[in-house]
Structure prediction request, 159 residues.
Amino acid sequence: MITVVTCGPAGTQAVAGAVAELARPGDVILLDGDLGAGKTTFTQGFARRLGVSETVTSPTFTLVRSYPTNAGFDLYHADLYRLEHLSEVIDLALPEVLEDGGVAVVEWGERGSPALDPAHLSIQISHDEGGEEARRLSIVNHGGAWDDRWNQLEEALKC
Ligand code: ADP
Ligand code: MG
Prediction:
């Protein structure tokens, strides 16, 4: 696990940028944490690093939105907050889009994880002591997806 504490939205977006820098087609990144933790803020930093110029907001009514990036893959941003049945995740056809070379960032990812790739990066964001804008990001490599990038990620996130 890699743990990083940020002290404002820009810090969380910088962490997201470091993850985006190492992202590859087919990656699944699950974001969890309370409402207002910073999952969408993270996704915005992630998208920006990939050259997405549109403003990324949570795709509340559609569950998923896609954005072309300049990194050679499309970014799929899903938000499972309103998920009622796991079958809705299956309907998103994320495995198929990932097979086609997309990268998925999924807010409230744990809710959908039984239907998603067991090899993924999970990032838990929580409030941290140290003030209103302090967040702790706990990054876990599941199923070996990031084995060969883990050291690079750790290096990139060192202060
Ligand atoms: P979520 O998608 O998890 O519900 P948002 O990203 O929409 O959360 O909202 C997070 C809010 O917290 C934003 O208003 C953001 O500016 C603020 N914020 C304050 N400090 C941080 C931080 N360190 N990291 C991320 N967001 C932060
Ligand atoms: Mg959100």
